[in-house]
Structure formats: C-alpha cells, structure tokens
C-alpha cells in the first residue's frame, strides 16, 4: 500500500510541477486498459485447475452478478432526500466502482495471480450491468449497438473470456509433458504458454507488470489536474464518497460472511478479499463519463470522482488490514 500511495503521490507531484501534461494521464490509462490489463487478465488464467479453485471461481462469478442486483435496489435508499437526476446519478455512481483500473492492480499487488483471476471473473457481472443498467439509467434510452459492442469487444473483456474458457477446458485438450518447477515432469494443455511457450508468456508478463505503476501514476495525474478546494466544498460528494468506499464494501463483506458461515456460498480468504477490495474502489470512469455525456449532474460527478478516489486511497490499507484480521480470527 505504501507503493500505491507513493506512486500516486509521484504522479500528483509531476502533474503539479508540469512535467506531465493534463492529457498524459489519459494516455497512460489507455495503455493500461488496452494493453497491460488484458495481458494481466489473460496471464492469470495460465494456471492449473482444481475442483476447489473451480468452485471458488464459480461462486465469485455468481456473487459478482447477485451483488449488483442487490445494489441496484439498495443504493437509492441513502439518497431519498435528493430528487430527479441527482438521486439517479448518485445511485449509479455508488453501484459502479473503478474495479478494473483501481481495483485489479491493488488485488494483484496484495493477493497475487489467484486474486487477479478472481477479480477478472468478478468483473464479468460488473461489465454486464455497467454497460446495460448503468447506460440505460443515465441516458434514459434503451441499449444501442455501440454500447453492446463496448460490452463485448472491450480488450479486457475479450482477454478475460478467452483466458477463462482456456482455463476451464484445459483438462480435455491435447496434453504435453514439460519440466516441472519443483523437479520431474508435469502434463499440461498444449496452450499453457506459461509452460510450453515462455518466449510468448514473458512479453505478456512484462506488459502485465506495467498495469499497477501506470494505473497509479495515472490516478495521481488525474488528482493533480482537478481543483481539490472546489471539490471539497461539495458536502454531497463527501457523503457519496463515504457510501461508496465504506458502506458498499461493508455491505458486501457482511453478506459474504453470512453466506460463508451458512455454507450457502462458501468462499475462501482470497476470494472474499478480492471482492471486498473491488467493491471499495472509487467512482468508475465510465459512470462519470455517462454523467458528463448525458448532462446528469456533471460537476457533482467530477467532484465525487475526485473525492472518492482520495477517500479510497486512504481507506484501502484499513480494508486490507480488516480483511487480514478477520482471516486470522478464522472467520473465512
């Protein structure tokens, strides 16, 4: 987490100093979303499959859909005192966090490859609702072809589905024998490039390793491009930030603990921690773009994005510590 904070602060400082131009953060984010994150998502599925990991992955997929259905009905409640567009915008902004750009790099740094795999699976439900419900609510229109294309032709989505399918079917594919890292030999599917074509896997790994530092730099540059003084004067954005970064992940954690304790949907520490970190992320860039594009409280959405990012950076170490304490107490 010190790495996260230091690199974000570096991006903030370089932007304030003028070394990085205002648009440089957008360029970095495009590199992350179109190249680095797809490589990271795909590589995470280059792993052995076992019954436990498969069961965990399927539970993550199911919960990744259920939690967004729950949030669709729950998130309007804290904003009943607001009317019209403002309530709609606050509700949609609260549902969808920056799970891809903010969440996955932190999950990868804290929980490793298995966490990245779970976060990629969890994001399937997120993207379905983001590009359908989120778009419809903010635009007031029905789904259009362009948005359906965004949903399925996004590089991260393509890499996730490709990796997930290859991971699931690897046992029924032609096998090859390779040297095992622990000595002896092992049998893997022919397309397991982490074992059979390291000359191809290694460049993907280099690209995947760019995800975290470039994402955190971009966040810092974005923070350095917006007036904190103006954003901080908006009490509604502070209230929203508390709901998004504290209450939403808390609701997610409590429900998961109940499901785990009752064995309705048992998930291990890595899966629970992954999903809680993903839910503790600030405003999604796409929802902010919706608000601006359709003129739904655009200024408030921009302020909320800035403040929720700051609150998330501060709160994330605490969330990770809480998850580790609960794990040590045997609740997972």
Automatic annotation (TrEMBL):
<feature type="transmembrane region" description="Helical">
    <location>
        <begin position="117"/>
        <end position="136"/>
    </location>
</feature>
<feature type="transmembrane region" description="Helical">
    <location>
        <begin position="152"/>
        <end position="170"/>
    </location>
</feature>
<feature type="transmembrane region" description="Helical">
    <location>
        <begin position="271"/>
        <end position="292"/>
    </location>
</feature>
<feature type="transmembrane region" description="Helical">
    <location>
        <begin position="238"/>
        <end position="259"/>
    </location>
</feature>
<feature type="transmembrane region" description="Helical">
    <location>
        <begin position="176"/>
        <end position="194"/>
    </location>
</feature>
<keyword id="KW-0812">Transmembrane</keyword>
<keyword id="KW-1133">Transmembrane helix</keyword>
<protein>
    <submittedName>
        <fullName>AEC family transporter</fullName>
    </submittedName>
</protein>
<keyword id="KW-1003">Cell membrane</keyword>
<keyword id="KW-0813">Transport</keyword>
<dbReference type="Pfam" id="PF03547">
    <property type="entry name" value="Mem_trans"/>
</dbReference>
<feature type="transmembrane region" description="Helical">
    <location>
        <begin position="60"/>
        <end position="80"/>
    </location>
</feature>
<feature type="transmembrane region" description="Helical">
    <location>
        <begin position="206"/>
        <end position="226"/>
    </location>
</feature>
<feature type="transmembrane region" description="Helical">
    <location>
        <begin position="92"/>
        <end position="111"/>
    </location>
</feature>
<dbReference type="InterPro" id="IPR004776">
    <property type="entry name" value="Mem_transp_PIN-like"/>
</dbReference>
<feature type="transmembrane region" description="Helical">
    <location>
        <begin position="304"/>
        <end position="326"/>
    </location>
</feature>
<keyword id="KW-0472">Membrane</keyword>
